[in-house]
Amino acid sequence: MSFESNSVRHVGDLKQADWGGMSKLTFTTKVMPLFGLSLLVAAGGVMGGLQILASLGRGTGMIVLIVALIAELGLVFTSGMWQQKEGLNKVLFFTYALLSGMTLVPLLMWAGAAGGLGMIAQALTVSAVTFGGLAFYGMTTKRDFSSLGGFIFIACLALFVGGLFNIFFQSSIFSLIASIAGVGIFSAFTVYEMNMIRNHYTDDQYVGAALGLLIAFIGLFQSVLRLFGIAGSSDD
Is residue 139 within 8 Å of residue 197, measured between CB atoms? Predict the structure, then answer.
């Protein structure tokens, strides 16, 4: 009996040895449920953002959404301080998910006008399938992509700053380039995040892991949707 118990324990250790960071149990029972719930909360945020625009009017409503965007960015940049504080981390994580849904509203309205709800559904499907495939690769590959972290951060920052400038210049060529770049950047971010979960994250960083996956998925969806929207506008 003792020999069998030790053998089972040894086999379990070998299976876990493939993961040098977070345990598979924590990933499946904490990270993925949080990630799934956050997508539902983000969908609720979209509904809330639409309601804000409908009740307050486009001008005042857009100001509220800009404030939501600032708060969303604030949560991202301060996440290192709160993601491991039990209780508070979940509150702020779901707050981020809600805000991210609200700030998607202007893009969804633009895309809806360019190609309708069908195009939005297609972009969501493409994003989900792509995200799933990239996440699986990041989770199963033997390669370590931790060195990409600095590059991805700078690339995301450059993409955001470029988007702000393009609000004033309204360049369709830049929008197309930025959308293509966004797909590449957030695809790399997805692989990187899953690779970090497998190789470097600890079990108590499960909220941060779910946050990273949420940022990667929403960023990928935004980029794909912009591409679809640009293509839809070009066909008109």
Answer: yes
